[in-house]
Write a structure and sequence with these properties.
Layout (H helix, E strand, L loop, with lengths): L2 H14 L1 H36 L6 E5 L8 H8 L6 H10 L3 E17 L2 E11 L3 H4 L4 E4 L4 H6 L3 E4 L1 H7 L9 E4 L2 E9 L4 E2 L2 E2 L3 E5 H8 L7 E6 L4 H17 L11 E4 H44 L1 H9 L4 H38 L7 H27 L3 H6 L3
Parallel strand pairs: 3-10, 5-7
Antiparallel strand pairs: 1-11, 1-12, 2-3, 2-6, 2-11, 4-7, 5-10, 6-7, 8-9
């Protein structure tokens, strides 16, 4: 029997028992769909994190009370006890970092309430910044100007706002020069940022940036820790030297003892991405483990179904052998049926996995990226399951005595 004929017979057998075939491949579908969906999400989020969230540039570093992506519980609890970074820490780094083109400071509050006339918007991100933060983060404006040194020195009540503020509070109105109320305080709009869009369903354009001096005047410093950012003159060696200069200056200013750990964290784009990769890899491996269980269950179901098929088709096997079919012919026939059954489940799993990923992306904006290697791996794994769990039923069918098989009655 040639392979094409074996596949045709296998498909006919599966089609003749449609409900049983669907139920037998269900676990395979779930397992492969889970793997494809997770790989698609992880790949999409990895790309988004690298391009949008941790896109600091290869020459930028951040100094903070604790890492923004801390994953070690013990280190997190210890870091919470540290003293907040303040503007004096910022000035110490500013004076000492000779390999820095820019050094900036920022404070952040994620629960700002913004009002204009009778309209208002809640949960706006309020950022108090120094003017040097604009070149550090490559902030682009669609209109107006960025906060400058004069604003900083005079604690000027001026603001640069995101497009959500403009679209929700003053549609059809030129925002430049307009006054808004930020948590009860009045600020004049001097600039509007370029639209960034959404990530994971959350808008990146609902923000207000004000001089950090005005922020401190309004909100104080009791709860917030200043985040210090530096932009080295270039990446590579210059970045390492800039980080070393900043670390030494901040340790000295905060009186960290020799031999003790830093009382702050320093992150670069590479280190943040490394932490994220470790986290996403752990999540991916955990999901793979769950999917593997589903695939094993699916393989057991397929083996059980094939054993039933061998019993039901005992007389057919006897007739085939009586007409000249060898053991290898019968073995290949049932093995191909098992593989085809698993591959059908694999194909459906790939389609469902991609469909789920695309649906979630459309509904909540979660980034996703389809990887060809993941699709190929899903199909290979499905076929392997079919081979592994189909060998025993196929051997059992091949070993049947043709005379006994012809006498068999179900």
């Amino acid at each position: 029997m040639n392979i094409v004929e074996a596949i045709r017979v296998a498909l006919q057998s599966l089609w003749a028992n449609k409900l049983r075939s669907v139920l037998s491949v269900l676990a395979i579908v779930i397992g492969v769909a889970a793997v494809i969906a997770v790989v698609t999400f992880v790949a999409g989020i990895d790309g988004y994190v690298a391009g949008k969230i941790f896109n600091l540039g290869a020459d930028v570093f951040i100094m903070s009370k604790m890492s923004p992506v801390e994953t070690n519980v013990e280190h997190f609890l210890e870091a919470e006890k540290r003293k907040n970074l303040d503007m004096e820490d910022y000035r110490a780094v500013l004076e000492a970092c000779r390999h820095c083109d820019y050094v900036g400071a920022a404070l952040r509050n994620g629960n700002g309430h913004v009002k204009y006339a009778e309209q208002s918007i809640s949960d706006s991100t309020v950022q108090g910044i120094t003017p040097s933060m604009a070149p550090i983060y490559d902030t682009d404006l669609s209109a107006g100007r960025m906060i400058n040194e004069t604003d900083l020195e005079n604690k000027s009540p001026v603001a640069v706002v995101g497009t959500d503020i403009v679209e929700h509070l003053m549609p059809g109105v030129d925002p430049m020069g307009r006054e808004i109320r930020l948590d009860g305080w009045t600020y004049q709009i001097v600039g509007v940022g370029k639209k960034k869009g959404k990530t994971l369903g959350q808008s990146l354009d609902n923000y207000v940036m004000i001089p950090i001096s005005a922020y401190l005047k309004q909100y104080g410093t009791r709860k917030d820790s200043v985040r210090i950012s530096g932009k080295a003159s270039s990446a590579g060696v210059a970045l390492n030297e800039a980080v070393d200069e900043a670390r030494v200056a901040l340790r000295a200013h905060r009186h960290d003892r020799a031999g003790e750990e830093d009382s702050f964290d320093i992150e670069t784009n590479a280190s943040l991405l490394g932490i994220w990769k470790d986290f996403s890899s752990t999540f991916f491996m955990a999901t793979i483990g769950v999917a593997a269980i589903a695939l094993v269950v699916g393989g057991i179901v397929i083996m059980n179904i094939m054993l039933v098929a061998v019993t039901e088709r005992t007389r057919e096997i006897g007739i085939r052998k009586a007409l000249g079919a060898s053991r290898d012919d019968v073995l290949v026939q049932f093995l191909i049926e098992s593989v085809v059954l698993a591959l059908v489940g694999g194909v459906l799993g790939v389609l469902f996995g991609v469909g789920i990923a695309e649906l979630v992306t459309a509904l909540i904006g979660m980034p996703s990226a389809i990887k060809i290697w993941a699709v190929a791996a899903g199909l290979v794994v499905a076929a392997s399951v079919g081979v592994f769990f189909g060998v025993y039923p196929a051997k059992r069918a091949a070993r049947l005595d043709p005379i006994v098989a012809l006498r068999f009655e179900l």
